[in-house]
Amino acid sequence: MTDDFRERARSWLAANAPRRSSSEDDAESAGSAERVRTGIAEQQEFQARLYDAGFVGITWPKEYGGQGLTNAEQIAFSAEAREYELPVGAFVIGIGMPGPTILECGNEQQKKRYLPKMLRGEEIWCQLFSEPGAGSDVASLQASAVRDGDTWVLNGQKVWTSGAQYSDFGAVLARTDPAQPKHKGISMFIVDMHAPGVTVRPLRVATGHAPFNEVFFDNVRLAPDALIGEENRGWDAAVVMLRNERIAIGTMTQPRSSPLAYDSLRKLADRLGRAGDQGVRRELASLYAREQSVHLLGQLIREDAMAGRFPGPRGSVIKLAGAELGRYATQVAADVLGPQVAAADSDDVRAVQISIVAVPGGAIAGGTNEIQRNIIGERMLGLAKDPGVDRNTPFNQLRVGTQRSAKESS
Fold first, then answer.
1. Which of 24, 245, 283, 291 is catalytic?
2. Entry pTM
3. Domain region containing 65
4. Active site includes 231?
5. In a domain, 213, yes or no
């Protein structure tokens, strides 16, 4: 059955998707609001065709819009799709993070209402965790949701929200009981990103692009059925989402045509006459070995996750490995470019330069490298946990993040 599925996927992809090129990432290169809107419409059309062909939600249950197949079929499709340019970036967050969280923590009504439309691309999702005073320490968040009859009223600010500008819904963490310790008294909600009181503003990064946003909530009304999981148990749902986020980021397969991939840098070294340099050759060989190691580890973790064997702290291993691979690739790229690292004379050199500038973000997104090392040390190596003197203190008695400044000025 898997061979038949693979052959069907291979034929469909060949007929419907272009092979990858070494151009900049679509989400990064969208230079205007009009191009973003056009791109989203095209992505939704392609996602619908991909879904109708049976290649989205491959392992998700049929009753929630999935295909009800096994991880073997998912792995087969991923392998076949690796070298194709699938315009589905707008749906990666929703299907990779909020979707699995609703699947695991949501109620039956939420699963049937949101998951099928998410898979087919009819509704786009984002994730809203980080705040100005709660980045690596997400549990210090201060956005609040207060009950008002059978609804909730959401107020606060979120930052670094990918895709918020075109999302229909978001999974947001908010504090619902500040009298409890910071990891408690938090709840997760579904928020309509088009609701009155939601403001999305772009955040421009070092490359000059604006892939992230800051989002403001001003008295936003949440529907009675917006709560994901239990009230004041949102940290449990957050752990599920963070686990899926790290797996999604860490196991994201880099195409061979990416500017910092071994194949691209080897071809660039040939064109620039640097392939004969023994130092460059040695570093390219090391990059190849590291790429293959990360790819194989990612495949192992992905297969375990698809089979229901959640990798736990190993998700932090692959997330950290991917970030470190990116950092090493920038060093190799700088050596390949030589003096041209500071002056672009062609599109391929310019693409490498932009990628070099963008890479440090990989050590932050989805949890910093330091956080991943803490998780690995504590949960895999059995090292002593960092002191947590605030874990049992009511949140409204803490001086954390922007709350510290407010208390000190009062």
1. 245
2. 0.82
3. 2-87
4. no
5. yes
